Amino acid sequence: MHKASRRTAGRPGNERILDAAEQLFARRGFYGVSLRDITREAGVDVALVGYHFGGKRELFTAVFERRAAVLNRERLELLEQVRRRALPGRPTLEAVVAAFTQPLFDRSTRGGPGWKSYFALVAYVNNSPEFGPLMMTRHFDPLVGKFIAGLRAALPDCPPREIYWGYQFLTGALTLTFAETGRIDALSGGLCRATDLESVHERLSPYVAAGFRALCGRSLARAPQPRARPALPRRRRP
Amino acid sequence: MHKASRRTAGRPGNERILDAAEQLFARRGFYGVSLRDITREAGVDVALVGYHFGGKRELFTAVFERRAAVLNRERLELLEQVRRRALPGRPTLEAVVAAFTQPLFDRSTRGGPGWKSYFALVAYVNNSPEFGPLMMTRHFDPLVGKFIAGLRAALPDCPPREIYWGYQFLTGALTLTFAETGRIDALSGGLCRATDLESVHERLSPYVAAGFRALCGRSLARAPQPRARPALPRRRRP
DNA sequence: GCTGTCATTCAACAAGTGTTGAGAATATAT
DNA sequence: ATATATTCTCAACACTTGTTGAATGACAGC
Predict the structure, then answer these.
(1) pTM, rounded to two decimals
(2) Cβ contacts (< 8 Å) between B137 and chain A: which residues?
(3) At what angle do helices B160-179 and B93-110 cross, to 10 degrees?
(4) Could you report the per-residue pLDDT of B111-154, keeping only the tens digit for each?
(5) Chain B contact present for A67, CB below 8 A
(6) Considering A224, A237, B35, B104, which has the largest number of Cβ atoms within 10 A of its Cβ?
(7) Which residues from B are below 8 Å from A214, CB to CB?
């Protein structure tokens, strides 16, 4: 045995590779990690990547896919549970949002370090112009569609456009949270900690629920904006 | 002249490099771009990077710094304008938020392609566990501190913790928006377009303003959550 | 015209990249 | 025990990476 971490020691090589790749890709992105970084961490020869996965790209998507199905099944169950409990009425907006986010927080805090890395990886992918549209769409769109249907059921008079925008803001907040960059720690002088997902979880669904409701009622009372400034000149040397 | 794009043709080499690096770093991150990619795009020799900037890392931070000062000055002016206009009262929450975000939308839509790349780059940096805390903190914390002071002035009874968390959600939404991954296009079936920053701008400040208010009143009426599930077992093969 | 400074190019470096074919080790089945 | 897959290692491949020192061009001041 080489330098494989204690946690992944006794497992077969392909899983050791997946674990190491998950951790490293999450920290430094696809290009920031070499296959040798990964196999060194896994205590395995470089060529094993080619044997099990084909190439670096395929390894990346294998890491991404591994936990996606588990996660989506769990989220879907929760979503239907929320809907069932509310019968014969409609579920509250907060409950729908929490069904979407709760599995993320649960797995990240109590699912072990692999899950924590995984969510950071999803955050990376979601923000990447290169990988985002391809990989997120392929693996998460079916679930997201059902989630959005749930939002529409909870907000029957809201125009769909507003719901999609509200969903984007929600995803953005989630993404930054699970990236756990630690910036909020420095910014708040230690008052908030990026790793304190409990606190985020408590606050996220009230926050976005209120946001959704504000978007839906937006046509009536538009909030005042600062006065528009004159168009910016397109200087060639800004 | 080599392959330099029309737009950057007549400019000195260091600025051509900055422009090309800005565009490429924004698209594929720090590690996804080689110095040769950059200098080829700029129509310049590789060694010129070392001469002007020292190395790849320094080039990266130079790109990041170039527009930060301009941007922050503009945002600060707008923030103080909002405060001044509201005297002798306090500014509304929506106005404070808009002062923070408006320069971003203005520059991104009317500032030319360099600015658009720049905001995508900031989105990349903000979500990166590696670069985020260092670079964001160094270049944006002073302004963000003043912005948060503005939020506290607009929400005098809100505990600071709630404001910091609310700010994180706001930043996350902003970040994903400026990454312009295009995922929302596919998801919404064309109903929303990631490049349509006007629509985002209209919606973001009402959304987050409502979110902030919800966080501040949170202690009284907590929203109902789905029932807590039994603790997840730490399976070794999830 | 000469000189010195700045900007740029050329050429090469050692180190690291992903990938691949041949072979050893290990497990599984008969 | 032997045959057969499966899993893994070794060694090398062609290529790209960031960096650097020497040489060349441009161009001002005198």
Answers:
(1) 0.86
(2) 183, 186-187
(3) 20
(4) 999 999 999 999 999 999 999 999 999 999 999 999 999 999 99
(5) yes
(6) B104
(7) 206-207, 209-210
